[in-house]
Amino acid sequence: PTDASLVAVNGTSYQVSARLWAFAGYFRFARPGAMRLAATTSVMEVYVTAWENTNGTIAIPVINAAHYTYTLDMNLAGTNVTHVMAYLTDNTHNVTLTNETFTVSGGKFTAEIEPRSMKTFFLDCN
Asked: What pTM did the predictor assign?
């Protein structure tokens, strides 16, 4: 009767909760041994963390708890970002690679975060 379970099993069928997909938005990209990086936002109802993996890639999961889209400027000072991929989790997407293209200039890029969603940015750095 609660939404606490990650996988509901009923006989031979099962249903995966949205909460499990949110975990995947973190742990498919922030791998064991990753170091947490400082990450902040001043936007109400938007939550951000950042992780640097041992191979130098960076994962930035962003949660938009609001009921409207936010456009955020992502500032990655001190990194050499070369490529950004985004994965969306919401009511119709389960850690789905988006076809967005991001222009990175001076360690910065702009991204839209859909309402009531989680978007994980996965960055290749030199």
From this structure: 0.86
